[in-house]
Amino acid sequence: MDASKLKVARQRLANEYEDLTQSLKRGRLAADEIKVENTEDEEGDLARLRSIEEAMEALDRGQYGECIRCDDDINEKRLEVVPWATMCVRCQEEVETEASSQSAMAGLERDGPEL
User: Fold this and answer.
1) Could you tell me the pTM of the whole model?
2) pLDDT digit string (tens) for the chain, length 115 residues
3) Partners of residue 73 on adjacent β-strands
4) Phi and psi at residue 73, to the nearest 5°
5) Do residues 17 and 10 lie in contact, with contact meaning Cβ atoms separated by under 8 Å?
């Protein structure tokens, strides 16, 4: 990825990071006012925040746009849509399929008949 595209990616990540931290702060202030615990949305936002931090670290190391699983380049169009992506589409799909299978198996173990 050329330097100008990396600069654009860094700016997009920085903007997303700032927007997300502001959103989390507003959500926490509102939660404090109504005495509500963390929500799943907040957990998802915190996970995305960490993903953005990791992408910015990858930029600093010169590894932005490399799949952390197979080391192939992540498609630039994917990075335009999800600038914090750490895996290529193929690896992301494999991980999601594995997670889905494990979740389904765990559900069967909990709900299945006892012998």
Assistant:
1) 0.70
2) 889 999 999 999 999 999 999 988 887 666 665 555 556 667 888 899 999 999 999 999 999 999 999 999 999 999 999 999 999 999 999 999 998 888 877 776 666 555 4
3) 66
4) -70, 140
5) no
Contact yes or no for 84/52 (Cβ under 8 A): yes
CB within 8 Å of 76: residues ≥ 6 apart: 1, 5, 65
Buried b / exposed e along 71-83 (16+ C-beta atoms within 10 A): eeebeeebbeeeb
Separation between Cα atoms, residue 72 and residue 66, nearest integer Å? 6
1 to 13, 64, 66, 76: CA distances (angstroms): 16, 9, 10, 8
The set of residues, in sequence order, having a beta carbon less than 8 Å from that of 112 and lying 6+ positions away, is none
Number of residues in the chain: 115
